[in-house]
Design a protein that fits this description.
By secondary structure, this protein is of the alpha+beta class. The protein contains 25 helices and 17 strands. Among the domains are: 137 residues, no CATH class; 77 residues, no CATH class; 170 residues, 3-Layer(aba) Sandwich (Trna Endonuclease, Chain: A, domain 1), CATH 3.40.1350. α18 packs across α19.
């Protein structure tokens, strides 16, 4: 029986070709296993580091380099044997220190891990090779083995992990994988570069791409998942083909073919559609739909306005079905309710085809609505917000230090004094069978049960990696080293001691907390100074821009069309454009920017209302799916808070004009009207 230990935390490369002459020459030691490789890599890394730091000036002088390496190795041996020899002070002392450290590691294990045995000879040879300037090199075919195996296992054996949001791996299926033999449901874009007249290959490629997507649980994003909401299905399952001219005609013809095929499906709930259908009942019996039953179903649908004059299903039917409020069928048909609804759902809704296929190259041309632009209401609003500005920040360093220390202490307390997690690794073990049949290999049963355990990595920061704690935090927070040092001095000693348990996590958490406190103080100390300069109208209000075909045709907008970014925004525009209270509005282009300490900010909407119907005439709005602070990203919240100060400053500047501009975040047209009425 073979015992297979899989170390998930270590990846080593061990393919070298060198010649061997004497003990101080570059050569490859015999590496029998991963542990030997680890010892060798340990020595090699140290050798390279010493060469770069201590022997850089001797690289071109072979004789000098040879003498100094010999001194270093003698010192190393002296350290291992607890001898003292200071004939060559610097290098001999360095070698002695290394030797002493290795001697200690023979007791505690390589790099402090008792499960890893120290092999002095292999480490020494790695050290020699490193001093000679060798690096870990690997043959291409051998380098590929580990990566290919891991990728194969991830794709074909562990799809659940690959598809999960927690898995950091992001994957792209190559064009060749879209041919026969593969089932790739999550293909969203197909790129074609070369000319091809092979229709079969084209159909295979597009056909694979048209497979429905799956979620992280492996569930198809079909009608069952969306409960029949076809619009949602089409939004998610969207195949984009980026192609050349030779491919364009094929894709266009395929789109037409699909549409024609779908359109041939029944669309009308006529008596003839239901007549003659067979209902399979739970007891195994069958019932054929008679002419009378078919007429009763049709009459029932018409009575409740579930079908229109053309016997096609109405939105009322779909809404009632989604809400579970469908009217009960006539008494003699109640027993067949499930079967009848399945038949009804089998009818095709022509509206479901809207947007299912289009030419991504086609665009609309968006022109300025000159009449709306020149309306006095919009010009009055635009004159109030069309100002460039600069900002100043007053930051109290003492207060920042105090608040950062308090925040760190508070965070540590909330985590039961575990400010950062201790580094750990997972050790998995399995036993491989001495012999395996073809069936066992095919069924992936060559190994016994896999057991795993998580071990704490007792890694000391006194290693090859040097951390500049103060410098790293200063870089991440844009503070001076002095300020960072004072914050670190002020935190609890027990919290600070956790730095050595996980240095990178400690630096990351400290930086995050300090930045949070800094952001709060930045908003408090933020002041805007409006400039005399404004945005030229010909820079902001530009005609003839290309926009998507799905843009909304508007009446009160300063452009002919409105481009929306989401369903929520589309609904908002529809209500905004149709409201009597609204005179004119504009979706502010990206060129309109407000400077903030957290990056430039572009508000969504500028709206002018009818002064006789609302109390707040001028409004600048930011539309979000939610107005709750907890649902907004930190950076978004900070930009919004900065914008509030910007518009408040402009209102002070424009007091003589009267009618201030209100700025707020809204999630719907209803919430907007609550603010202005």
């Amino acid at each position: 029986m073979k015992k297979l230990n899989i170390f998930l935390a270590v990846a080593l490369m061990t393919a070298f070709v060198f010649t061997s002459c004497d003990n101080n020459k570059t050569k490859l030691p015999t590496l029998k296993n991963q542990l030997d490789s680890l010892n060798y890599a340990f020595g090699l890394a140290n050798g390279n580091g010493i060469k770069q730091y201590y022997l850089a000036a001797d690289s071109a002088n072979a004789d000098s380099l040879k003498i100094k390496i010999a001194s270093l190795l003698k010192g190393l041996n002296d350290g291992l044997n607890a001898k003292v020899d200071e004939k060559h002070p610097e290098l001999s002392e360095l070698g002695k220190n290394i030797g002493s450290a290795l001697k200690e590691q023979t007791k505690s294990g390589l790099m402090g891990d008792s499960t890893l045995t120290v092999d002095i000879d292999i480490i020494k040879q790695g050290l020699i090779n490193g001093l000679k300037g060798s690096t870990v090199q690997m043959k291409a075919e051998e380098a590929q083995i580990s990566n290919d195996t891991d990728a194969y296992d991830l794709i074909l054996k562990d799809k659940e992990r690959l598809l999960s949001f927690e898995e950091p791996t992001r994957f792209i299926f190559s064009h060749s994988a879209l041919r026969e033999g593969w089932d790739n449901p999550n293909v969203f874009v197909i790129c074609t570069l070369k000319h091809s007249d092979n229709v079969i290959s084209r159909r295979q490629e597009v056909g694979r791409g048209m497979r429905l997507a799956v979620n992280k649980f492996g569930e198809r994003m079909d009608a069952n998942h969306f409960q029949g909401a076809l619009g949602e299905i089409h939004k998610l399952n969207n195949l984009t083909v980026v192609t050349n001219e030779s491919y364009k005609e094929f894709v266009s013809n395929l789109q037409s073919e699909i549409l024609n095929t779908i359109q041939n499906r029944p669309t009308q709930a006529t008596p003839d559609y239901f007549k003659g259908k067979i209902f399979k009942l739970s007891d195994g019996s069958s019932v054929e739909v008679t002419e009378l039953m078919a007429k009763q179903i049709n009459k029932h649908l018409s009575k409740h306005d579930y079908i229109d004059d053309n016997d096609q299903l109405t939105p009322k039917y779909h809404e009632a079905k989604d809400q579970g409020t469908l009217a009960e069928l006539p008494e003699n048909l109640v027993a067949y309710t499930e079967q009848i609804h399945k038949l009804i759902d089998g009818l095709f809704d022509p509206k479901a085809l809207e947007g299912i296929a289009d030419d991504g190259n086609k665009k609309l041309t968006n022109n300025i609505n000159q009449a709306n632009l020149e309306r006095k209401e919009f010009q009055a609003l635009w004159s109030r917000i069309n100002r460039k500005a600069v900002y100043q920040i007053h930051l109290d360093s003492e207060k920042l230090i105090e608040q950062s220390i308090s925040a760190v202490e508070r965070t540590a307390k909330e985590r039961n004094n575990k400010f950062v997690e201790t580094l750990s690794y997972k050790l998995a073990e399995a036993t491989q069978n001495d012999e395996s049949t073809y069936e066992q290999v095919k069924a992936k049963e060559m190994f016994g049960k896999v057991t795993s355990k998580t071990e704490v990595a007792n890694i000391s920061i006194q290693s090859q990696v040097t951390y500049d704690l103060i410098g790293n935090i200063a870089d991440d927070t844009n503070l001076t080293r002095k300020t960072v040092a004072r914050i670190l001095q002020g935190i609890n000693a027990a919290v600070f001691a956790q730095f050595k348990l996980n240095p990178e996590a400690f630096i990351r958490e400290m930086s995050r907390i300090i930045n949070e406190q800094q952001a709060k103080m930045v908003i408090q100390g933020l002041k805007y100074n409006p400039l005399d300069s404004t945005y030229p109208d010909n820079e902001i209000f530009v005609s003839n821009e290309n926009i998507p075909l799905q843009a909304y045709k508007a009446e009160r907008h300063i452009w002919d069309y409105v481009v929306t970014d989401s369903d929520n925004e589309r609904k908002f525009v529809e209500e905004l454009d149709g409201a009597d209270e609204v005179v004119v509005y504009a979706k502010l282009p990206d060129r309109f920017q407000i400077p903030t300490p957290f990056g430039s900010y572009n508000p969504d909407w500028a709206i002018a209302f009818n002064k006789d119907k609302v109390r707040q005439i001028y409004f600048v709005a930011e539309t979000k799916g939610s107005m709750l602070d907890s649902d907004l990203r930190e950076k978004e919240k900070r930009k919004i808070d900065s914008a509030k100060k910007f518009f408040a400053t402009l209102n002070q500047e424009n007091q003589s004009l009267g009618d201030a501009v209100q700025y707020s975040v809204i999630d719907s047209f209803g919430s907007l009207m609550n603010l202005v009425k």
